Give the backbone structure.
Amino acid sequence: MSEDVSRGTGATIEDYFLEDRRFPPPAGFKDQAVVSDPSIYSRADEDWVGFWAEQADDLDWFKKWDEVLSWELPYARWFDGGQLNVSYNCLDRHVLAGNGERVAYYFEGEPGDSRSITYRELLEEVEKFANVLKGLGVKKGDRVAVYMPMIPELAVTMLSCARIGAVHSVVFGGFSPDALRGRILDAEARVLVTADGGWRRGKAVPLKEGADAALAGTPSVDHVVVARRVGGSTPMTPGRDHWWDELMDGSDPVAGGAPDEHCEPEVMEAEDLLYLLYTSGTTAKPKGIMHTTGGYLTQVAYTHKVVFDLHPESDVFWCAADIGWVTGHSYIVYGPLANGATGVIYEGTPDTPGKDRWWSIVEKYRVTILYAAPTAIRTFMKWGVEYPEAHDLSSLRVLGSVGEPINPEAWIWYQEKIGRARCPVVDTWWQTETGAIMISPLPGITATKPGSATFPIPGTGVEVVDDQGEPVTRGGGYLTLTRPWPAMLRGIYGDPERYKETYWSRFEGRYFAGDGAKIDDDGYLWLLGRIDDVMNVSGHRVSTTEVESALVDHPSVAEAAVVGAKDETTGQAIVAFVTVRSGEPTDDATGESLRAHVASLIGPIARPKTVVFTDELPKTRSGKIMRRLLRDVAEGRALGDTTTLADPGVVDEIRRLAEVSPGEE
Ligand code: WT7
C-alpha cells in the first residue's frame, strides 16, 4: 500500500474521485467509459503482477507465457516463455476478426494530398515490404535504421521490421546527418530506410541528401531504401540505393523481382528486442533505449485504451506527435494499431497552410481524441481563439497532454476552448524509457485538476522521495518508480553499466526518472520537470552536455555552458554562454554561426535560442561550471531570440558570480 503516492494518509485512491472537484468527467461520460469503476485501482494494487497478466491476455499469443514476471533488479523479464508477433497483433488479428475495411490511418499530407488506408491494405503493404527487407538480406535480430518524414511508409517500415523480427531504430527526420550517423554506428544497422524528402512549411526537406551525408563512414549499411515523397532529382548510389516503389513492384534493377505478397509473421519471444530509440541523457552520447515485445505491447495497448477511453469502432484518435519520438512509436503506431483504432498521420506543421491546420484536420476527420504537447497548446493560445473557433470541433471527446508540465492556464484553455468544456483532459507523464504512460487520470473516473497529472495508472508503483530516498506523502521530492512495469526499458543498447548507473543507482531499489515532483494537499501529483542536466524544449529532451560539445566543436569557441531557461511557449529555451578563443569575434555573425553549427551537428531542435558571449564562466572550486547560477541569469532577463552581444549587464553579472562563486559546490 505504501507504494502509492496517494497513500500514506490511510485514504484509498478512490477517496480522491469526488464528484465535487473542479473538473469531474462530464455528465454521462462515466456510464459509457471503458473504465468506470474506481475499484480498478485497488484491484490492480492487490495483485499487480496478475493485473498485468490480465492485460496481456488481451493480445493474441502464439504461445502463452510460463511466468508473468521475473525480477532481478534492475532487470525484468515479462511474460517469459510467451510467443507472439507485434505486427500480427496490430494487423492480422483485426482483419481476421472482420475489421479489415476499418481505416487504420487517415494520412494528411502538407500539400493537401490525403489518403486513407484500411487495416487490410496496411497488412498487404507490410507483408510485401517485410519481404522486400528479407530480400535485402535483413534477418531476425538485425537492426534497420529509419529516417523518414511523417508518411504512412514510416509505419509500414516499423511494422515490417516487427513482422520479420528485425529491430528498428527510428531517427527523427529533424535530426542532423551527424546525429543519424552516430545512431547507425551505435546500432550497426544493415539497412537504412528513408525518403527523398518531406514537406515542411511549403518546402521539400531533402532527407536523402542528409542520409547520404550520414552514410559516409557507416560500414554496416549495405542497402538504402528510398520512398518517393517530394519528387525531383535525388542522388542515388547504384547497387546501394533502391526506390521503395521499384522494390515493391519488382522493377528494381538489383533486387530479384517482385516480393511475395504473403509473409508469415516471425514467432517472437516475449523478451525479443522490438526496437531501439535514442534519447538524450546527461552526457553528450545519446542512449539507445531498448524495448522488447510482449510487455511493451501489453502496456501501450492497455494505456491507449484506458487513458483515452478508446472505443475503437467509433473513435478517431489523433496523436499529433512525430513518429520519430517515443510518443509516436507508442501512440501513433503500436498502441492504436494493437487496439484496432483509426488514427491520423499528418505531415508538416500547425501553421501551414494556415494557423487553423489542426482544427481543419479535426473537423475533416471528425477526430474524437486529440493528444498533443503543451507547447502546441500554448502556441495556439498565443495565436488566438479565432482559429479553433472557425471550425466544428464537436467530435472531440477526450484531450490528452504529454511531454512537459502543462501550466494550469494552458490546461484550462485547452479544456474550455478546444474541449468546449465537454472533454476530460488527461495529462500523461511518461518517458522514452517507460515506453508507455505511467501517470495519468482515467477519464471515466478521475476528477482532474488543471496542471496535475493526478495519479499513477493502475498497476504501476510511483513514489516521491526526499534526498535520502524516504517517501514523502505531501510536498516535493524526486519521482521514482517502485515496481517493474511491462513496457519498461530493458537496458541501454551496448551499455549495461550506464543503465544501472543512470536509473538505478541514485536511490536504492528504485528507478529514478530524473524528474522532480510534488504531492499537493489533496494527494494529487504534480510533475516539476527535470532535475538533471537535461532540458525539455517543446516536449523534447535535449542534453546540455550534447549542446556544449557541439559548441566547443566550433573553431571559435574556447568554452561553453548551456542552460535551459524558462520559456513561455516551449517550456524551456536553450541559452548558451560562450567564451571565444582569443582574437575571435563576438559579433552577431559569430553567434549566428554557432547556432547554425549546433543545428547542423544535432538538429534544429537543439539550436540555442540565445548565445551570450562572456569572457568568464562561474565555476566551482573544482572547476565545475555552475549552471544553476547561469540559469538564474538567463531567467532573470528577457534575452532576445539570437545573440546578446556582450550585453554589459549580463557580462557584469556573470563576472560578479565568477568572483563570488568559488567555494560553492
Ligand atoms: C521527460 C521524458 C513521454 C513522451 C514524450 C517525452 C517530461 C513527459 C510529462 C508530463 C510533465 C513530462 C519529463 C520526462 N514529461 N510527460 N505529462 N508532465 N513532464 O518523452 O523525450 O523521453 O521525455 O519529459 O521530464 O522525464 P521523453
